[in-house]
Amino acid sequence: MKSEQDLNKLRHSVAHLLAHAVAELYPDTKLTIGPATPEGFFYDFLPTINFKEQDLPLIAEKMQEIADRKLPITHKQVPKKVAREMYKDNPFKLELIEGIEGDTVGIATQGDFHDLCKGGHLEHTGLLKNFKLLNISGSYWRGDRKGQPLQRISGTAFFTPKELRLYEKRREEALKYDHRKLGKELDLFSFKEEGPGFPFYHPKGTVILNKMLEFSRKRHQEGGYKEVISPIMLSDELWRRSGHYDHYRDNMYFTNIDERPFAIKPMNCPGAILIYDDHPRSYRELPLRLSEYGQVHRDELSGVLHGLFRARTFTIDDAHIFCTPEQLEQELEKLIHFTISFYKAFGFDDVMVAVSTKPKKAMGDPKLWEKATKALIDTLERAKIPYKIHEGEGAFYGPKIDFYIKDSIGREWQCGTAQVDFFQPENFDLTYVSPKGTKLRPVIIHRAIYGSLERFFGILLEHYKGRLPFWLAPVQLKILTITDEQKPYAQELLATLEKHGYRVIMDESANPISGKIKAAQLQQIPWMLVVGAKELENKTITLRHRDGKQEFGISFDDLLKKAEKAQK
Ligand SMILES: [Zn+2]
Ligand SMILES: [Zn+2]
Question: How close is the Cα of 479 to the center of ligand 1, in Å?
Answer without folding.
Answer: 62
